[in-house]
Amino acid sequence: MSVQEPQVRTDLVWTLPNALSCIRILTIPLFAWLALVPEADVAAAAVLMLGGVTDFVDGMLARRWNQVTRVGQLLDPIADRLATLTALLVLLIRGIVPPWFVAVLLLRDVVLSVQMARLKQRGVTGLPVNYIGKAATFNLLLSFPLLLLGADAQSGVEQLARVAGWALALWGTGLYLYSGLLYMRQTREVMAALPAAAGA
After folding, report:
1. CB 3.0-4.6 Å disulfide test: which of 2, 75, 91, 178 passes with 97?
2. What value does the CA radius of gyration of the chain take, rounded to a whole number of Å?
3. Within 10 Å of residue 34's Cβ, how many Cβ atoms?
4. What is the pTM of this model?
5. What are the tens digits of pLDDT across the range 140-185?
6. What is the C-alpha separation between 50 and 47, in angstroms, rounded?
7. Does CATH place domain 16-193 in 1.20.120.1760?
């Protein structure tokens, strides 16, 4: 199922939704520093959650205020990928998640990147976003701060955070892989339709 694409404004750059996307990108190195250098897990988790909130708010405001822009369409997925990749690497370095978990998620993105490269060679710049992919990203970005908070799992609250974090992470991974299959199917359909369209 595809998200209905709103009208895209090509004449807008400096909008509040785009500013929120920029802020989200700027929080990523701050999160990494907090989690790896002083290991201030509560502060790092708060920064990561702030990034997740801006991810939801910028899209909502862009659609509601008719400020969906080409710049925003570029910034939003870049911010999502950077946040996901950085969080995964930080959690891997800290020993909070196993290598296979990171490998599964990264493999999905690599495969889709190859698919997108094929589409760009045919003049297609992107595919419609689907709800499954959005839900997967939301679950993963929500799970990462919980996994970080539950890293030591000494108190009851930390143990609860760890359990909830892994539940969201595994559910998000399943959705992430399923959305990847949907994108691959979309790619095949678009590639099959392009020759017919060219010859029309």
Report:
1. 91
2. 18
3. 22
4. 0.82
5. 989 999 999 998 878 889 999 999 999 999 999 999 999 999 989 9
6. 5
7. yes
| Beta carbons within 8 Å of 186's beta carbon, 6+ residues apart | 127, 128
CA distance 147 to 194: 44
Token pair listed for 86: 């950085």
Q: How far is CA 83 from CA 4, 23, 86, 96, 118, in A?
A: 25, 12, 5, 17, 25
Question: What is the model's pLDDT at position 191?
Answer: 82
CA distance 116 to 19: 26
> Domain coordinates of the chain in residue numbers?
16-193
- Nearest 5°: the CA angle 179, 84, 129 is 35
Q: What angle do CA 90, 95, 101 make, to 5 degrees?
A: 80
**Nearest-angstrom CA–CA distance, 63 and 50:** 20
Neighbours of 187 (CB within 10 A): 18
Question: Which stretches within 6-155 are classed as H helix?
Answer: 16-36, 41-64, 70-93, 99-121, 131-149
